[in-house]
Amino acid sequence: MTAVLTGTMVVWGAHTLLWYRRTSIDRRRRAVSGAGAEMAVADEAGERSLEAGGSTPMDAALRGGGPHVWRFNLTFRVIHALIIATFFVLVVTGLPLRFSCTVWAPGLMRLLGGATRAGIAHRAAGLMVFGYFALYAAYVTWRGWKDPKAIRGWLGPDSIILKPQDARDALAMVKWFFGKGPQPRFGRYSYMEKFDYFAELWGVGAIGFTGLMLWQPEFFALVFPGILFNVAIIVHSYEAMIATAFIFTIHFFNVHLRPDKFPLDAVMFTGRATVDYMEEEHPRLAETLRHNVTVAPPSRRAVVDAPAPPPPRWMNVAGAWGGMILLGIGLVLIGLILWGSLC
Question: Count of CB atoms within 10 A of residue 214's CB?
């Protein structure tokens, strides 16, 4: 488990640093050349907004000012919000146990109301994880039953399932990092997003099942030998550490801290993005989206890929404040983890 934790962070940490380096180099080159025609989509979008009397949006998904398209429907956004809420509760209530040797652990446990209340909150959040996982499974099943084409779509180019093309995109990305080729053109989901998706599924299974074993040892002892409970403690602890470290560093960088996205990307909160944003992030899909906005009016119903109205101001404000607060809390928790790793 130590090897898995170290390997995950080394590989994706290197990926993150190389991405940051390449993006920073490109931005410096554009700044030195001052070439308006060679400006990246994000910079062009910002300039157009300023020329129109507006300002560069904090939310990267709004750059360019429009037109907008629906990226995620309401079901995905609700499940994502539940993932955020339960993840933070699980991390905050689990860290004092994982790093009980630190000076901050007792204080955090007292702030949570003591070990008993923290344990109740931890288990309640765990049950919510199983709940939204069941909700998602039911939704996917319902979609497949209602529209058999949706099942065939799982194997198509827009699928979230990993395919050989993702390996080719990852290799092309590494070549781009070192200036040996162009940046790959992603479809609906990039290989990073697919990795996030399957890491979540794996985490629900590995962390969730071992958590159930530790919560109800008498029941599981009717089936499993005692040594597996020692294994469950290790797996539960280390898998939780892998998830926490990955989300608060690699995922935060991909979504918020990249130079071309800083300070945040709120597309999962508002459910919509501009076509300019999609052309930069998912160019293989953008041509279809640009056609859609020319043949259909904006839909207030969140239909994926359909034209969308701009998000209301309250949603932009809530997404910005919520995203920045969660980002700040996550960075504080990473600091506590690094501190605890030294004891």
Answer: 13
Q: Which residue has the tokens 């259909």?
A: 296
CA distance 131 to 222: 25
Under DSSP, the state recorded for 255 is: I
Task: With CA atoms as reference, report the closest residue to 338 among 95, 116, 66, 38.
Answer: 95
- What does pLDDT average to over the chain? 86
**Cα gap 239→73, rounded to integer Å:** 30
- Residue 235 backbone class (left: φ over 0; alpha: ψ -120 to 50; beta: rest): alpha
Helices marked H in the chain: 2-33, 41-51, 74-98, 104-111, 115-146, 148-153, 164-177, 191-215, 217-220, 227-245, 252, 267-270, 275-281, 283-295, 313-341
Q: Which amino acid is at 60?
A: A
Spatial distance between the Cα atoms of 187 and 60, rounded to a whole number of angstroms:
18
236-290 per-position pLDDT tens digit: 999 999 999 899 888 888 888 888 887 788 899 999 999 999 998 999 998 889 8
Asked if 234 and 2 touch (Cβ cutoff 8 Å), the reply is no
Please tell me the distance from the alpha carbon of residue 103 to that of residue 96, in angstroms, as a whole number. 10
Query: Which pTM value belongs to this model?
Result: 0.85
Q: What is the pLDDT of residue 55?
A: 58
Residues 86, 122: contact at Cβ < 8 Å?
A: no
Counted residue by residue, the chain has a size of 343
269 φ/ψ sector (left φ>0, alpha ψ -120 to 50, else beta)? alpha
Mean pLDDT is highest, among 43-47, 54-58, 114-118, 260-264, for 114-118
CA distances from 308 to 80, 116, 131, 270, 300 (A): 20, 47, 30, 11, 6
